[in-house]
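So, can you check?
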Amino acid sequence: MSRSNPDKLQSIRERLRHEWTDERTVAAWRKWRSHISQYTRGATDAILEAAQVKPGMQILDLASGVGDPALWLAKATGPTGHVTASDLGPGMISLAEELAQTKGLKNIDFKIANAESLPFPNESFDVVTCRFGVMLFPDPLASLNECRRVLRQGGRVALVAWGAKEQPFFTATAGVLLKYVQMPAPDPDAPHLFMYGERGRLRRTLEEAGFADAREEVRAVSGLWTSTPEKYWEQFTEVAAAFRPLVEKLTPETRAKAVEEVLAGLRKYWDGKELNMPLEIVVGTGTRG
């Protein structure tokens, strides 16, 4: 993201904040949380591994949403450790707080925080994590500089982003919609879901932010959706904030055709009980020297 146009950068910030704190988005994530948590469990496991969590650690999780991976991190660091889960707004994270109470997790708290300007002192944490949030940071370098600032010497950052755009969860849903609805040309300066599908980009960004031993690994994990293709599509139309406008632009005729094509694509991964889609993710790590 170019930092030379502050007005444009602020416009991107406001759009993303609106998309991810909108009442409809929050309601959808609360509704589908358990299904999505299971579907993305491979990515949660990957970030737990990359974070190298040990009992007693102090951990900051960014873009925690409805609780993955923050709740798992709290369990991993144990009663002598602590997790601070953060998000742009109170909507989604309020469900994560409810779930923490239900699970009896006492070592986690919840903060409203913007990754570009974290409200924490220098060298507060042993680990900073972010699962499926880093690719939507309006100013990635500013955000990663903040991650480095709040890490202690030798502290670790662990990030998970989506990989290549050409993977089933996208091509079978939004990819189909784009055949029926024309979208404006993408802004080359704006963050997007698949920006770190470009090989080496996440590692280079970590290096630019001053992280030592910056690494990037492309990994395939299983996405298990324990319901029908129809329910998966229903979830997509409600949860995917950036793509809801595409669905709303469909005419009754084009909607019927698009849905038929979407379901046909999803059924390729359906065994009669669940969908099993390969998900490509990128795992980025680095340490504060």
Remarks:
- Residues 230 and 263 are 7 Å apart (CA to CA).
- Residues 23-39 form the longest helix (17 residues).
- The chain has a mean pLDDT of 94.
